[in-house]
Model the fold of this input.
Amino acid sequence: MKKTTQFKNHYIAIIGGSISGSEAANVLAQNGFRVVVFDMNKLPYGKIEDGLPNWHVNLRDRQIAEIDSKLDQENIRFVPCVKIGNDIDFIDLVNNWGFSAIILANGAWQDRTLQIPSTEKFIDRDIIYQNSFINWFNHKHEHDYFGKNYFIKNNTVVIGGGLASLDVIKVVMIELVKKQLYLKKGIDIDLFTLEKEGILDILQKNNTTLNELGIKKATLVYRRTANDMPLKSPKDERIESVEKAKLVSEKLLNKYVEKYQFNFIPLSIPVKLSEKNGKLSGLILQNVEIINGNVVPIENSFNKVICEMLISSIGSIPEKIEGLNYTNSSLKMRDERDYHVYGFENVFAIGNAVTGRGNIQESKQHGKQMTEIIIDKHLTEDAFEKWLTNHNNQIKSKVKKQLNSIIEQIKIQEIKSEEITQEILNKTAAIHKKLNYTTYKNWIFKNTPIRLEDILKNKDDCKCS
Ligand SMILES: Cc1cc2nc3c(=O)[nH]c(=O)nc-3n(C[C@H](O)[C@H](O)[C@H](O)COP(=O)(O)OP(=O)(O)OC[C@H]3O[C@@H](n4cnc5c(N)ncnc54)[C@H](O)[C@@H]3O)c2cc1C
Done:
């Protein structure tokens, strides 16, 4: 692809400014395109801010710095606090804003629904979904946190098997031990130390046990086996590499089980809840077997576990936006399944929004590769001329319908691409004005929440002085 310093005609909207959205914006900006990045939140960091538990300080800060450097460019306008589908109708964005292409980089923010009967009455009390759980964990220390609050209980069961489910069960054990160490022994240990050193070591160092602290271990329930967990990616697709990665995954899980003191139950799926006095008390698990790679329930083979709280970490799916098509839980794509959205000539999707899963590296790569293809195949000058003609025709037919028969013959002016650009600038400037947004840097500075590690550091500094 050739780089240019002049702006190209296409003006592109990106929905979501995190890992994949900022990557796409950067590739487009570097190739001379102008871009508006909409994000529903104040900050464009997506799962990096609200998904990764906050002990991943270095990873978070590195990724945030990278997103900032990608978005803070002359030909990129960041527009925060705008949820497409709520604040701006998606079809309105496609038809009336003047963008010649739209890229969805909105990730996967809706938790997959647990398929167990009668969960509703326990939701957000004894049954919690991962996205809101980690959001609470990451932000509860902020003075202006007004989100949901959770009280973690003994005998919590986490359902899941990916990297995120391990983070979830770590949060459970860390929170329980932190609280009980303080209440029962007066020992105040921060979560960063608990995470780094592990619960077993901290208990031993402080001459205590889970039993003495009154803690009952949490349990991770997975429908496959430990070596099926995606904890280690194979270095290539050869059978030997895949097998090696599986063994490493199993070893890693066993290490986690010991270090963070939780139970692991493989080859099981949750099928029924039990309750006592209106509270969740147990969970019936059905045993399964893996046949040709598929999870197959074994008839009449069940186990019961004590379960006072259940956290579902079975994956996230894209939140549906009205106007787009979905098959089951995935965004419906055209033949070019990797990026081209069904039903639209100029709407594309990248990152978790398409893949529904994956990690930072995969989302970044997908964002970059797909955007390069989109530029080469769909953002040519010919494509722009075609889009402009269509856009003008649409406007003409709309206006014509509104005019009465006497003045029907008046020539309707063609809209020029500069006018379209100006209109986009005006509309986004109006949103910025409402938000009191001046520059990207100022906005980020003003809205980055206080970090827990800084609070703890200040506390330590105060103690010393
Ligand atoms: C608990 C947990 C732990 C993880 N641990 C790791 C790890 O250790 N290593 C790793 O590599 N990966 C990890 N991941 C995965 C990683 O965070 C994601 O794969 C990656 O961040 C996805 O990037 P994305 O840009 O595709 O989506 P997201 O980060 O989800 O970004 C989507 C953006 O779109 C915005 N948005 C959504 N809907 C709208 C809308 N309608 N209008 C406007 N804006 C919208 C959101 O606000 C967000 O900023 C973890 C994920 C979780 C949940």
